[in-house]
Amino acid sequence: MGTVTVEGTRTGWQPPATARALQIDQEPRDEAWFANLYSQTFDTVYHFARTLVRDHDTAEDIVADTYLRAWRARSSFSGQGSLLSWVMAITHNCAMDHLRSRRLNISLDLFDSIGDPEGPETGGPSITEADAEAIRLAITRLTPEQQQVIFLRFYQELPHEAVAAKLGKSPTAIRQIQFRALVRLRKLLHEGTRGR
Amino acid sequence: MRALVAAETPRPGLDVELDRCVDQLLTTGGWEIRLRPGMERAELESLMRVAALLRALSQFIARPRPSQKDRIWMSVSNSFRRPWSAAVVRHRGRSGRTCARPHFGSV
C-alpha cells in the first residue's frame, strides 16, 4: 500500500523537473487520491486538450469530462502502465467524441510552401489560424499513442527520454513512435493539400 | 495495411537521426541533417518540415491559468459528489466549495 512510481524512470537517467514521475498511491482510490491525480496531471491534460481543439471553452469542457470519466473509471486502471498515459487516453476519447460531430476536413496549403530549415533568428514557418486548425485535425487522426508522443515532444518540448519516462516506454520505442507519427502526419497533410 | 506499416517503420538509425534533428529544432529553431544526399536525407528533410509545422503551432497553444484549474476542479468534484446531477458537467459552476481540493502547488 506504499507509494508507487506510476511512471518509472530509466536507470542512470535523471528526468528534468517537468518530467518527473507522478507519485500517487495505488490505493485507496478515494477523493484524496483523485485530487492528487488532478493536481499532478491537470496542466498536461489541459494543454493536450488545447492541442486537439481550437478554443479554450471547448478544451475546458473536454478536461472536465476527462476527469469525470477518470473518476468513474478509476477502478479500471490496472496500475501496470503509466497513469498519465491513461488519463491522456481518456482526454483523447473525450476530444474525439466532441470532434465526431464535426466534419474533419483537412485543407492545408502551407506544407508545400515550407522551405529549407531556418535558424532561430528567422522564426521558422508562419501559421494562420486555418493552418493551425488543419494541423490540429491531422493530429486527431493519429493513434492515441502517437498523439501522446507528439504532444509531449513538441508541445511540452521534452526530450525523448523524458517522454519515455512519462509514458512508461523505452526511449527506442518513443523514437520509433515519433517517426511513425511524423510519417502519418505528412501523409495526412499531403492528402489535405491534394483534396483542395 | 502491411505495406502501410512497412512504409512507416523507420530504417535502423533513421529514427535516431530524426530525433537528433528534432532536438535541434526544439532547442535552436533550426536543424542540420548529418546524412549524405540521397533518399534517406530527403526523407528526413520531408519529415522535419512536418516537425517544424508542429513546433510553429505549439507556440500558439495557451497554457492553463491557475484559476481554470481551480474552477474545473470545483465543477468536477461537485459532479462526482452528486452523480445524479452530473449528466452534463457544468464546469463553470461555483458550487461545491466544501469538497476536497487538490494541492495545486505541488505540480
Brief digest:
The complex is a heterodimer of chains A (196) and B (107). Chain A has 196 residues and is mainly alpha-helical.
Any chance you could write out the topology, listing elements then pairs?
The complex is a heterodimer of chains A (196) and B (107).
Chain A: E1 3-5, E2 23-25, H1 31-52, H2 56-72, H3 83-100, H4 129-140, H5 144-155, H6 160-167, H7 171-194
Antiparallel strand pairs in A: 1-2
Chain B: H1 2-8, H2 14-28, H3 39-58, H4 66-81
Helix pairs in contact in B: 2-3
Account of the 3D structure:
- The complex is a heterodimer of chains A (about 200) and B (about 110).
- Helices cover about 60% and strands about 5% of the residues of chain A.
- By secondary structure, chain A is mainly alpha-helical.
- Chain A folds into two domains: about 5-100, RNA polymerase sigma factor, region 2, helix turn helix motif (Rna Polymerase Sigma Factor, Chain: A); about 110-195, Orthogonal Bundle (Arc Repressor Mutant, subunit A), CATH 1.10.10.
- Chain A is globular.
- By secondary structure, chain B is an all-alpha fold.
- Chain B has four helices and no strands.
- Chains A and B meet through helix 1, helix 2, helix 4, helix 5 and helix 7 of A and helix 2, helix 3 and helix 4 of B.
* Name of the CATH homologous superfamily of the largest domain in chain A: RNA polymerase sigma factor, region 2, helix turn helix motif
Q: What fraction of the residues of chain B are assigned to beta strands by DSSP?
A: under 5%
The unreliable regions of chain B are 1-6, 86-90, 92-100
Tell me, rounded to a whole number, the average pLDDT of chain A.
77
Categorize the overall geometry of chain A.
Answer: globular
CATH class of the largest domain in chain A: Mainly Alpha
Radius of gyration of chain B: 23 Å
From the alpha-carbon coordinates, what is the Rg of chain A to the nearest angstrom? 18 Å
* Structural domain count of chain A: 2
Quaternary organisation: heterodimer
**Spatial gap, N to C terminus of chain B:** 42 Å
Profile the largest sheet of chain B.
none
Structural class of chain B: mainly alpha
Helix content of chain A: 55-70%
Main sheet strand line-up of chain A:
1-2
Instruction: Give me the count of strands of chain A.
Output: 2
